[in-house]
Amino acid sequence: MAAEKMSLSKAINASLRTALESDPKVLIMGEDVGKLGGVFRVTDGLQKDFGEDRVIDTPLAESGIVGTAIGLALRGYRPVVEIQFDGFVFPAYDQIVTQLAKMHARSLGKVKLPVVVRIPYGGGIGAVEHHSESPEALFAHVAGLKVVSPANASDAYWMLQQAIGSDDPVIYFEPKRRYHDKSEVDTSAIPGPLHAARVARPGADLTLAAYGPMVKVCMDAAAAAAEEGKSLEVLDLRSISPIDFDTVQRSVERTGRLVVVHEAPVFLGTGSEIAARVTERCFYHLQAPVLRVGGFHSPYPPSRLEDEYLPGLDRVLDAVDRALAY
């Protein structure tokens, strides 16, 4: 079929619909995912079409949601659970890191837990406390979990398909402020590997590496820099654990400079690991230190201040200028 232009949220809905149609063992669980269709309407219409036994409205109990999903996975189901907002995941953190992530190793490979945990994350929507956080590094640090985040509708569709098909647990971070961004989605295409980074824009002078909500910011920064004669390469990392360091290395070897951008605080964030690995692997190619751009090491602020907290075009371009000045 021909590609269709759709929003990122619609692409997730279409992907969930495809999974439900393709495999009777796929279940969707979460708070308000059924009759309401989710607070962002991402699961709209699915309970109506597939029934309350397949799309299940749960109590407000994240630990119970994930714990139930683990039990269902042990019985052969493939649950897809939704955590309503990023800051609500922490009651389920124990279940995720001590049970979901460890069961495969604990059973010496005999037990698989094909559970997907969908988490809308990040800021930019003017929400209240605990509705705009970026906790991806906490999960990437946990062995046994795959952690991914799409930046466009096509990846939102295909990466979720691949996550649901994985026998390993996947934490699927959805950039909520990009829910309405539209792009082409070809549902008949053959997707690339789930954990492969992609070159979103080629360039020669410096590499910008980002994922999820910050890819668009980096694309805008590259376009602005081009007007001043600077050629920036933009990498969409797509996967946070594992990270496709080979693609990052090839890019840095071409450009000699790297700026890593994410919404989460810079302190001990994903960019820290990338900066360390690139320094080890590309030391003799680097013409400047690896720089990081991200949120501040503070609680997420009230919505009136989030524009000051979130890394935007100016902060990315400032880091680009500092890197190019070496």
UniProtKB/TrEMBL annotation:
Residues 6-181 form the Transketolase-like pyrimidine-binding domain. Pfam families: Transket_pyr, Transketolase_C. Gene3D superfamilies: 3.40.50.920, 3.40.50.970. The keyword Oxidoreductase applies. It comes from the Bacteria. This is 2-oxoisovalerate dehydrogenase subunit beta. The keyword Calcium does not apply. Keywords: Oxidoreductase, Thiamine pyrophosphate. Its cofactor is thiamine diphosphate. PANTHER family: PYRUVATE DEHYDROGENASE E1 COMPONENT BETA SUBUNIT, PYRUVATE DEHYDROGENASE E1 COMPONENT SUBUNIT BETA.
